[in-house]
Amino acid sequence: MNKSDLRRQVAELFIVRASGFNLDSQRLYPNLEESNSNLKRLLEEGVGGVILLGGTVKELEIRCNVLKKWSDKPLLLCADIEEGVGQRFYGGTKFIPPMGIAQIYKKDHNLAISIAEKIGYFTGKEAKNIGLNWLLAPVCDINNNSNNPVINLRAWGEEPETVKSLTCAFHRGVSRSKMLTCAKHFPGHGNSEVDSHLDLPEIQNDLSKLDKFELIPFKSLINQGVSSVMIGHLLFSKIDPIYPATLSKRLVTDLLRIKLKYDGLVVSDALVMNAISNKYSSGISAVMAFDAGIDLIMMPKDIDEAIDSLTDAFYSGKFSLERLHVSRDRRKKQLDLISNENDLEKEDLKDKDIKNKFSLDAYRFSNSIIENSIFIREESTIKAEFNDINLIKIDNFDQVSNKYLPALYLPKAAGFKNLIIHPLGLSPWKKTNKRVLELGQFGNSKILVQLFVRGKPFIGLDYHNDHWADAIKNLEIEERLSGVIVYGCPYLYDKIKKTIHESIPLAYSPSQIEEAQNHILSRILQSKRVNKEIDKKIIKEFTD
């Protein structure tokens, strides 16, 4: 085989990042997402997969068709969809985070399992309907560390049995929709305190501890026939003191391939992440990952360098061509499984009325889960006095970019003045004590506190929000606290619940989306006045 043909075959094992938007100018992360011209070139040169983010569901449908035309082979088209298509693409259904289902599981096992399976089905079907064929889910990490900044709400629980039951249910649902699945982040990212997007987490568990805890969900998903397993960028120093799991033969080949007898697709987490790219070049990391036993290489920082380096490794005889064919065959086998779908079902999904009914059913189901997952300790109405403040703490300013967000407009209509605290704004804390709010800047007003807090990639140290529990207790002591609503993090909510008096209105939702805000605020604010004021405001602004 000449080197050019070899390179095309090697390129098939790489996955690049692209925007779901059609125009380069619309890219949300241009430093990570290939331009259209480069993306077209890479697909024409044989790259076999694209991971997508951004755009509307309709745009993505068009986008996926364009990508297929640029390639001369079946593509893996994937996205990190863990909480519904709407998590990544505008107009799709959003479901509550998996940790919210885990809380339902504590009260009713069967109900939670049923919900998880339906979420899997709706998510898989909706993703397939817009052109994707591979969900990078479920997250199989067990979040047994409340200080975990990156997994957190993305986990299906804090106990092995909970995570095993719910991830298997989700997988069954996705499989019914004829989509590929991915168990991640092997061998378990739940006990880390470092975000691997920013640095390399080190976990002290030995093989015995992994076997009794972290590996339980992965074993069950493997037995259920999960389509792929993603390796996390994690250093298990008691198993391999030198290499992170992504580059470790002990973890990928010896543990996953041999001990757990997994012969399916193995994919790396994104090699562009600092846990790998801080120490290894794109070429070296791609070669080492493949040598460790990985089949598909996700998002190297320099895609051409990575493909060239792996091609050279085969051309020079470092790796056998047989090994290349094994990985390519694993990829082909999974694509073949989902391409042999029922033709009648395929035609049915093209019917506009059926699509609309499916979307409506998914939305209603999502809404019903939100209602089941909300907790409100006090049903008493929160009333705003003159100049009272609605203090909103957010991790991401995009969360409040829409001024008709319920967390903003419902309290405003009830008489509160909005004040937003975010990482890019002015600090609200006393200079001498970072756990106490500088109340002088809030006048004598009472304060309704709404906290949007969750672990997520790249949040880093901003995730740690324990100081809010102290600040809220201080507001109560000063008789300045109207009520507290926590959206997202169950750990912060639990601390606040134990700290403040039971007479203080307190609400919690694992979901941060608009429907969750609506459900809570319409119950604890004066809903009749709120709705009347909002209707007037919207009509006035629309006609203006």
Characterization of the model:
With 544 residues, the protein is of the alpha/beta class. The longest helix is centred in the middle third of the chain and has 22 residues, at 352-373. It has helices at 3-11, 36-44, 57-70, 98-107, 109-129, 160-176, 207-212, 215-223, 249-259, 274-277, 282-292, 303-315, 321-339, 343-349, 352-373, 406-413, 467-477, 490-499, 514-524, 527-543; strands at 14-19, 49-53, 76-79, 134-135, 183-186, 202-203, 228-231, 235-236, 265-268, 297-298, 375-376, 389-393, 417-421, 447-453, 481-488, 506-509. It has a six-stranded mixed β-sheet with strand order 11-16-15-14-12-13, with helices on both faces. Helix 3 (57-70) links the parallel strand 2 (49-53) and strand 3.
Q: What's the structural blueprint in terms of helices and strands?
A:
Blueprint (H helix, E strand, L loop, with lengths): L2 H9 L2 E6 L16 H9 L4 E5 L3 H14 L5 E4 L18 H10 L1 H21 L4 E2 L24 H17 L6 E4 L15 E2 L3 H6 L2 H9 L4 E4 L3 E2 L12 H11 L5 E4 L5 H4 L4 H11 L4 E2 L4 H13 L5 H19 L3 H7 L2 H22 L1 E2 L12 E5 L12 H8 L3 E5 L25 E7 L13 H11 L3 E8 L1 H10 L6 E4 L4 H11 L2 H17 L1
Parallel strand pairs: 1-2, 1-10, 2-3, 3-4, 5-7, 6-8, 7-9, 12-13, 12-14, 14-15, 15-16
Antiparallel strand pairs: 11-16
Mean pLDDT: 90
Biggest sheet strand line-up:
11-16-15-14-12-13
The biggest sheet, with number of strands, parallel, antiparallel or mixed sense and barrel status, is:
6 strands, mixed
Q: Report Rg.
A: 24 Å
Tally of individual helices: 20
Estimated share of beta-strand residues: 5-15%
Which structural category do the helix and sheet elements fall into? Answer: alpha/beta
Indicate the percent of residues in helices.
40-55%
The first-to-last residue Cα distance is 69 Å
Poorly predicted ranges: 341-345, 527-531
Query: What's the count of strands?
Result: 16
Query: Based on CA inertia axes, which overall geometry fits?
Result: globular
